[in-house]
Amino acid sequence: MFKPIPVAIGLRYLRAKRRNGFISFISMASILGIALGVTVLITTLAVMSGFQKEIRDRLLQMTAHTTITADGAPMSDWQRAVEVAHKDPRVAGAAPYIEIQAMLSGPRVQGAIVQGIDPALEPAVSVINTKVTKGSFDSITPGSYNLLVGKELATWLGVDVGDTVLVTLAEVQGTPMGAMPRLKRFTVSGIFEAGYNEIDRGVAYANMADLERVLRMDGVTGVRLKLHDMDKALEVGVDLAHGLGGAYRVSDWTQQNANLYHSLRMEKVVMGILLSLIIAMGAFNLVSSQVMLVTDKQADIAILRTLGLTPGGIMQVFMVQGSLIGIFGTVLGVVGGITLTLNLERILGAIETLFNVKLLPEDVYYITGLPTDMQTPDIVIITVVALVMSFLATLYPAWRAARTQPAEALRYE
C-alpha cells in the first residue's frame, strides 16, 4: 500500500464491492446526478451564448461599434472626422449619418427612425447594402427622395416598392399658420430584411443629402465607426474625439443597446445559477451515499483507529473517496456536455424529422438552425463549481466518521 495511507484506503474503498448494494446504487446515482447537471449546464449556457452572439452580430451588422456626435449641434466638419478615423489602424470604416424620429404614413401609420446615409460610405460600417431583398440600395441617390424601409415596417405601413410614404419629421418649421412639423413625401425604392426585429420594424434609410435639405441642416448628426476589435469601441471613440479637438460625445455599442446587452447577460447568469441546483442535487445524493458508507464501515473505522490512524486520517479517507466520486461525475459531465453541444443541431434535426415538427420556425426566430457558442471560461467555471460542491458534500460524512468511537463500533461485532 502506497502512502499517504488515507489516500490509499480511500481509493480501495472506491474500488471495493459493497456489502450493501443500495449504497453502490446511491453512489452511482450521485455520479450520474453530478454528470447530468454539468452536461445540462454546459449545453444550456452554450445555447444561450450562441443566441446572444447571433443577436449581437445581427445587430452590429446594421449599427456601428462607436458613434461620435457633436455636442448639441450638427457636425459640420464630418469630412475631417472621417479622414482622421481612417488614419487610425484600429478603425475598419467610418461614415456620416443623420438620424431623426419620424411618423411614416401610408395606408397605415407607424413611427420609425429615419436615418440619412451616404450610399458610398455606408457599406464601410454596415451591411444594409446586402440586406435589400426588393428594389435597390443604389436607388437612394441625392435628390431622389427615395426611402429604404424594413420588411416588418413595410408590412405595418401596408406599402411596397414604388409606393409613396408621407414622412412627418419631429422638427418644426415656422409658417403663417404657426409652427408646423416638416413634411415630405418619399418613394419606397427598396425593402430590406436585417433579421433583427427592432431594425426591420423601426428603421428607414434615405439619402443623407435629402434629409439635410428637408431639415435645413448644415452638417450631420455624427460619424459612425466600425472597428477591427469591437471590445475597444469606447477607447477608440474617446481617442478620436480628443484628436478632433472639439466638444464631442462618444457612445459605443454597449451603451446604445444597454438594455438588450445587460438583459442578455443577466439571463445567462440567472439561468446558470438555477441550473447549478441540478449539480447541488447530485451533491446531496453524494452526502447520502457517504453517510450510508460511513455507517456500513463502522467496524473498519474502529479497526483503523485501534491501529493508530488519527481522526484526521479517517476524515481524509472518506473525503478522498467522496471527492473521487465528484471528480468522476464532473469529468463525465464535461465530456457529455461538450459532445451534446457539438451534436445538438443534428439531434434537433432528428427530433424534427421524427415527430414532424418545427422547433425553431424561421419566421418567428429569424434564424436557421440552433446557434451554439461554447466558451472556455464557462466550462472552467462549471467544472470548478461542480468540484467544490462535491468536496463540500464529503465534509459532514467524513466528520461523522472521524467521531466514531472504536469501543462502541466493535461492541456488537
How are the secondary structure elements laid out?
Blueprint lengths: L4 H11 L5 H42 L3 E5 L7 H9 L4 E15 L3 E9 L14 E4 L10 E5 H7 L6 E12 L2 E15 L4 H6 E5 H8 L6 E6 L5 H12 L3 E5 H4 L1 H39 L1 H9 L4 H32 L1 H12 L6 H4 L10 H27 L3 H5 L3
Parallel strand pairs: 3-8, 5-7
Antiparallel strand pairs: 1-9, 1-10, 2-3, 2-6, 2-9, 4-7, 5-8, 6-7
Helix pairs in contact: 1-11, 2-9, 2-11, 2-14, 9-11, 9-14, 11-14
Overall description:
This protein has 413 residues and is α+β, with helices and mostly antiparallel strands. The chain is built from 15 helices and ten strands. β6 and β7 form a beta hairpin. The radius of gyration is 32 Å and the shape is elongated.
Mean pLDDT: 85
Q: So what's the overall shape?
A: elongated
Proportion of strand residues: 15-25%
Class from secondary-structure proportions: alpha+beta
CA(first)-CA(last) distance: 26 Å
| Unreliable sequence segments | none
Give the strand tally: 10
Strand order in space, largest sheet: 2-3-8-5-7-6
Largest sheet: 6 strands, mixed, barrel
* Helix and strand sequence: HHEHEEEEHEEHEHEHEHHHHHHHH
* Helix-residue proportion: 40-55%
Keywords, please?
six-stranded mixed β-barrel, 413 residues
Quick structural summary:
This protein has 413 residues and is an alpha+beta fold.
